[in-house]
Amino acid sequence: MGKAPVSGLYVVAASKDGQTEYWIAATGPKEAALAVQLHVGPEWRVTLTNRQLTAAQIAALDLRPDDVRRLDS
């Protein structure tokens, strides 16, 4: 059976050498930063943000529980 869609997503900022990327984590809030850290590596500084996505943005991402993905915009 496939994973069910998620409704709670967390935006995490990852910064390194003056560059910042935003990532989305379909995890609990306590796990979001760690999940992104595992994708970007230890040299990046990660921080959970208060950024909210619209329902349309969430639907377009089509994330499942535990998915982590870099936001393009």
Question: Structural class, from secondary structure content?
Answer: alpha+beta
The sequence of SSEs as H and E is EEHEHE
Categorize the overall geometry.
Answer: globular
Number of helices: 2
Beta percentage is 25-35%
Number of strands: 4
Helix content: 25-40%
Kindly report the average pLDDT value.
89
Number of domains: 1
SSE order and pairing:
Layout: E1 10-16, E2 19-25, H1 29-40, E3 45-48, H2 55-61, E4 68-70
Antiparallel strand pairs: 1-2, 1-3, 2-4
Overview of this protein structure:
The protein has helices spanning 29-40, 55-61, and strands at 10-16, 19-25, 45-48, 68-70. By secondary structure, it is an alpha+beta fold. The protein has one domain. The chain has a 4-stranded antiparallel β-sheet, with helices on one face.
